[in-house]
Amino acid sequence: MSSISGQHNTKLTTEKEALKDISEPKVPRKRKAPARYEVGREPWYTETSEDLYRKIYYEALDLIVSAINERFDQPSFKAYAKLEALLLKSLKSEDISYEMACVKEVYHQDIKVEFLIPQLEIFKVLMKERKLEYFAEVLDAVKNLDYNTQQMISEVITICKLLLVNPATSATGER
To answer: Distances from the Cα of 42 to the Cαs of 30, 35, 45, 54, 58, in angstroms?
Structure first.
């Protein structure tokens, strides 16, 4: 056992010694761009390696933030989020007028809004003993209802089905 830990300590010491021999990062040499790329002004060069890597870091950070924004600012994701919020807000007795307007506009062929409003009230009464915070919990609760109860809240079931089959985002954001 002691020989294994001794080998491990020797390996760490060797790695630390190897790191001591590594020099500080250096700024790449200044290169002149080909004439076809010159715009007429002098190109900008970093003075220190810190400036160079800071520039690279912030460029990468900007790309990551823009990719996240592109992924979640899609119309399909917003409609998906509104459907989910409709179910969760109705269970908490919050205002759902904004979400209902979206349902009327986007899902008017799939959901009968005149039946949905009273069914949401029935759904709230059925789930009053449970504290449902996420759609997955709502889905499990709906699955556990018996057939007759599910028929009473058919439009709520339709919303659950739409949430299950609709893609949250499109492939454009995945690229």
So the answer is: 12, 12, 9, 21, 23
In a domain, 103, yes or no: yes
| Nearest residue to 138 via CA among 151, 124, 152 | 124
The reply to whether 104 falls in a domain is: yes
User: How many whole angstroms separate alpha carbon 109 and alpha carbon 105?
Assistant: 9
Are 172 and 127 within 8 A, CB to CB? Answer: no
| pLDDT tens profile 47-83 | 788 888 888 899 999 999 998 888 778 777 888 889 9
d(CA 92, CA 130): 11
Whether the full predicted model's pTM is greater than 0.70, yes or no, is no
Residue 117 is assigned to a structural domain of this protein: yes
